[in-house]
Amino acid sequence: MGDHHSHGRFGNPEDLHAYVSRLEDPGRDEWQKPDEVLRVLDVRREAVIGEIGAGSGYFTLPLARAAAHVFASDADPRLVEILRERLAAADARNVTPVLGLPEDPFLPSGRCDLIVSINTYHHFPEPRAYLRRIRRALRPGGRIALIDFHEKVEKARVLRAGKAAGLRVAAEHDFLPQQHFLVFC
Fold first, then answer.
1. Which residue of 5, 65, 81, 146 has the lowest C-beta tally within 10 Å?
2. What is the CATH number of the domain that holds 50?
3. Domain span holding position 15
4. How many domains does the chain have?
C-alpha cells in the first residue's frame, strides 16, 4: 500500500531522480517558454505569488526573482525537500516552501496577487472546489494562471470549472505549443 500511496496520491513516479531530471531538462525551455510566460504574466516587483505544484522549482526561482514573495506549494514531500535544497543553494530568501495536500495547497488566505498552476491542474481532485479554495488566497483584483497540457485536460473543461468556481477569463495565451494558458480573475 505504501507504494500506491506515494505514487497514486501525487501522480509522481517512484523514481524521483528520473522525474526531477525531466522537470529540469534544459530542452523544456523550448516548449515551456518560461521567460515568455513570465513576461505575459507581468509580475510586479511587489507581488506575492502562490505557486501550486512547485515541484523542484523550475518556475519557483524565476518567480522569486520577479516578485516580492512566493509561496511554493507541492503535495509531494520528496519534492518539497528538493525545492528547499535548491532554494538554499540559490540563496532565495523570498520563497516559503509549503507542503500542501492534494486537495488543498495551503496558500495563505487573502495574500496572493497571482496564483500560478503549471502542469498541475490535471492533478486537482475536484477542479471546481479546488479553484474556489485557491480563489480565497487571492487579494482583491488577483489572478489565477492555469497552464496545462492539451492531452491531459481539455480546455473546455478548465473553462467550465473556472466559471463554476465564480471566475472569469481575463486572458488566454496561445504561444505554448503543448499547453493551454488561461488567466482567470
1. 5
2. 3.40.50.150
3. 2-184
4. 1
Q: What is the pLDDT of residue 23?
A: 65
- Does this model's pTM top 0.85? yes
Three-state helix/strand/coil letters over the chain: CHHHHHHHCCCCCCCHHHHHHHHCCCCHHHHHCHHHHHHHHCCCCCCEEEEECCCCCCCHHHHHHHCCEEEEEECCHHHHHHHHHHHHHHCCCCEEEEECECCECCCCCCCEEEEEEECCHHHCCCHHHHHHHHHCCEEEEEEEEEEEECCCCCHHHHHHHHHHCCCCEEEEECCCCCEEEEEEC
Instruction: Report pLDDT digits (tens) over 114-142.
Output: 999 999 999 999 999 999 999 999 999 99
**The predicted structure's pLDDT at residue 7:** 43
